[in-house]
Every structure is written in structure tokens, then in C-alpha cells.
Design brief:
- The complex is a heterodimer.
- By secondary structure, chain A is mainly α.
- Helix content of chain A is 85%, strand content 0%.
- Chain A is elongated, with a radius of gyration of 17 Å.
- By secondary structure, chain B is of the alpha/beta class.
- In chain B, strands 5-6-7-3-8 form a five-stranded parallel sheet, with helices on both faces. A three-stranded antiparallel sheet of chain B has the order 2-1-4, with helices on one face.
- In chain B, a hairpin with a 2-residue loop joins strand 1 and strand 2.
- Chain B is globular and about 45 Å long.
- The chains are: A mainly alpha, B alpha/beta.
- At the A-B interface, helix 1 and helix 6 of A face strand 5 and helix 2 of B.
Chain lengths: 213, 189
């Protein structure tokens, strides 16, 4: 299991693809004030939601490299021949994907919040929300990646599958950064994220098995 | 009495609604070898995947008490890594010796070459080295001679002989004849 997680981290680092979501996230944060205008109170009010939107889209970026290359190269078959269950493989992929994407995104949220002129207390709530929510985003990405592995032109399909499922995370995550944001939204965000994380290894594992036939 | 490494009874295989074969019986014991032949699409690769547990048999019973190692058309080595590291990943999972397996397939000089630079024959050798390093008693080889030169064929023959002498068994599917002395034969299709 450790070897598998390390392999995921190495793959993420080797492709430079761990950097891509971060750059995307920061670009959105940099562009958003241009679109809305340099109105500090307005930016502070909408910035949290915009950053959550950016985080959601950034999570979608690595969807085509999570499962499909391993399926095509026969790595998933070789792991199965060794008696390693698809659920373990999926759990390792989930852990590796979150480690390569969640903590860096939380770091990037600091300069992004500065670009949005978010006050310190909202930044704190955004960071806590990302801590609770990014595992859920990673789980969703993994499920969708496993479901679309082996299909052609998966980019748009993956987006169509993932974005509606991410609605609870988006509502509660952005809700945490709003004026009314409080412990209620945080608890619901954590609950939604936990549910997705618990579900993902089984859903993705079943999808990997089904894709084999 | 040597132990059975693979036993199939009345096995049938359905692919995409077509019946490839049915009522297939086979038994592989320690030191044994079975060479599967048949025209393209007869179900040779499917038989190997059933033996590996990657495909469910449509009917019948498959018994495989020990581990198996599969070399099929997909290499399963990270193209960006050097050969030694890519093989080392699997060898660590299997607690095998990648360096020795690479030497046995004549790949020692390529240890630091990235997998994506390897030629067809070198890839085949690498896949065979992955099997050799696995330490699994049952080898499942799909067209192991494809792309190998005469020296590679000799090394394959030596590796297979050593594996059988050590109590292993081999189930191979191949069009060209394989150097498997005393192997049983099974014709599909």
C-alpha cells in the first residue's frame, strides 16, 4: 500500500501535473478581479465562492491521468494478478492524489486570497474548508477517472459527470466563506467529503473491475 | 507426487456473446508445461487471463493454489523510469530480485535506459524479466517469443528450463514453436 501511494506521488511529480492544478487555481484567482473589477468589498464578498469554483475545476484537471494510463499499460492487471484488490489500488490512488493536490492547493490559497482581498478571518475559514473539502474533491475525481477509463474523449464527459456531484461540496464550502458561514456549513462540508472518501475506493474499484471485461 | 499448480475443469469462455471454447480440462503440475496453440481469436489470451484470475470463466471450475505471473502484450512498466527502477517496483512488490532477472534476460547493460527507449524485443525481454523476478510458481506467457532474436530465444529457453527445474510450471500461448521440451499441447479453435 505504501509502495502504491509513493508510486502515485512519483507519477504526479514526474509529469509536472501536480503543478498544473495549482497554476490553474492561481490564474483564476488572478483573473477574477479583472472580470469583477477592483471593488474590494465586492471581491471580499464573492472571492471565497470564486476560489471554491477554481478549486473544483482544478481538481478536475488530472482526471485523465489518474486511472487510464495504468489501465492501458496493464499495471492494473499486474496488480490484480498479484492478488492486490482493486479497492486497495483505488484507496492508494485516492491517498496519492489528495497528497499531491490538497496541501499544495491550501498553500496556493494564501496568495489567491490576497489577490481577492479576502480578510484574514475569511481566509482562515477558506483554509479549513479546503482541508475538509479537498479529500472529497479528490475522491470524486478518482471515481470519475475510474468510470471513464478506457473511453475516448473523456475530458468533457468527465466534467459532465463530476460537476453535478460536486454541488454539495461547493455549496457548503462556499457557504463556509460567506457572512452566514459557520459551524453548520463546516459540519455538512466535512460530512459530504467523508461520505465521498468512504465511497470512492469501492466505487472506483468496481469501475476498474468492470472496465476489464 | 508433485503438487498441482493449475487445474481447470469443464471451463467455458464467452467473449462478447461468442463462445470461444467450452468443456476445457487442463492440469499443470510442478515442472510441467502446456503449450496452447490455435488460430487468431481462438481464445488463447482469454485462457491465460482466466488462469490469471483477470477474467471469470463462463462455466466450470478454476483452481490455482499458488501465485501466478503474467506476461501479456502490455508491458506494465512506467515508460519514463529507467528499466532497473521500473522492474524494481514490481520486484519489491514480489520480494524478488530484479537485477538477477535482468541479467538472465540479457538486459543488464540497459539498466539505466528509460523504458520508453527500448525496442520491441527489449520490451519483450523486460516483460519476461518481470515474470522471472516474480518468484511465482506458475508462469503465464502470451506469445513470449514475439520480437525476440535468436539470442533472446535461447535466454527464454534457459529461463523456462530453470523455472521448471525449480518446481515451477508454464502455461504458454504461442504461434511459433517454443523451446519447451516435453510440454503437453492443447489446440484451441
Amino acid at each position: 500500500m505504501t509502495a502504491l501511494v509513493l508510486r502515485e506521488l512519483r507519477l504526479a511529480a514526474a509529469a509536472g501535473s501536480a503543478l498544473l492544478p495549482l497554476v490553474f487555481f492561481l490564474l483564476v484567482a488572478a483573473l477574477f478581479p479583472f472580470a469583477v473589477g477592483p471593488d474590494a468589498p465586492l471581491l471580499a464578498r464573492t472571492g471565497g465562492g470564486a476560489l471554491w469554483m477554481a478549486a473544483l475545476l482544478a481538481a478536475l484537471l488530472p482526471v485523465d491521468r489518474l486511472v487510464e494510463p495504468d489501465r492501458a499499460a496493464g499495471v492494473l492487471d499486474q496488480l490484480a494478478v498479484r492478488g492486490i484488490s482493486e479497492e486497495i489500488v483505488a484507496a492508494a490512488k485516492l491517498a496519492g492524489h489528495w497528497l499531491s493536490f490538497g496541501p499544495p492547493l491550501m498553500l496556493a490559497a494564501v496568495p489567491a486570497a490576497a489577490l481577492m482581498k479576502l480578510p484574514a478571518d475569511i481566509l482562515l475559514r477558506l483554509e479549513l474548508g479546503l482541508l475538509a473539502g479537498t479529500p472529497g474533491l479528490a475522491a470524486l475525481t478518482l471515481i470519475v477517472a475510474a468510470l471513464t477509463a478506457g473511453l475516448r474523449g473523456t475530458g468533457a464527459l468527465a466534467g459532465l459527470l463530476l460537476l453535478p456531484l460536486a454541488v454539495p461540496l461547493l455549496i457548503f464550502g462556499a457557504g463556509m466563506t460567506g457572512e452566514a458561514g459557520g459551524p453548520g456549513a463546516a459540519k455538512l462540508l466535512a460530512a459530504a467529503s467523508l461520505l465521498l472518501v468512504a465511497l470512492a475506493p469501492f466505487a472506483a474499484g468496481a469501475a476498474i473491475r468492470a472496465a476489464r471485461d | 507426487m508433485s503438487a498441482t499448480l493449475l487445474r481447470m475443469e469443464r471451463v467455458a469462455c464467452l467473449r462478447g456473446g461468442r463462445r470461444l471454447f467450452e468443456g476445457l480440462d487442463l492440469c499443470l503440475r510442478e515442472g510441467g508445461a502446456l503449450l496452447v496453440s490455435g488460430p487468431n481469436g481462438a481464445g488463447k489470451s482469454s485462457l491465460l487471463r482466466i488462469a490469471a484470475g483477470l477474467l471469470a470463466a463462463a462455466a466450470g471450475r478454476v483452481e490455482r493454489p499458488g501465485a501466478a505471473a503474467l506476461a501479456d502484450e502490455s508491458l506494465a512498466l512506467d515508460p519514463r523510469q529507467t528499466l532497473a527502477r521500473a522492474l524494481g517496483f514490481w520486484a519489491r512488490l514480489d520480494q524478488g530480485d530484479a537485477a538477477q532477472a535482468m541479467a538472465s534476460m540479457g538486459l543488464a547493460a540497459l539498466a539505466d535506459v528509460p523504458v520508453r527507449m527500448l525496442s520491441t524485443g527489449q520490451r519483450k525481454r523486460a516483460a519476461l524479466a518481470r515474470v522471472a523476478a516474480s518468484g511465482a510458481p506458475l508462469w503465464l506467457l502470451d506469445e513470449p517469443a514475439n520480437g525476440l532474436d535468436s539470442e533472446g530465444l535461447e535466454r527464454l529457453a534457459d529461463a523456462m528450463a530453470a523455472h521448471r527445474a525449480g518446481g515451477g510450471a508454464i502455461l504458454a500461448a504461442s504461434h511459433p514453436p517454443l523451446p519447451l521440451p516435453g510440454a503437453e499441447r492443447l489446440a484451441l479453435g
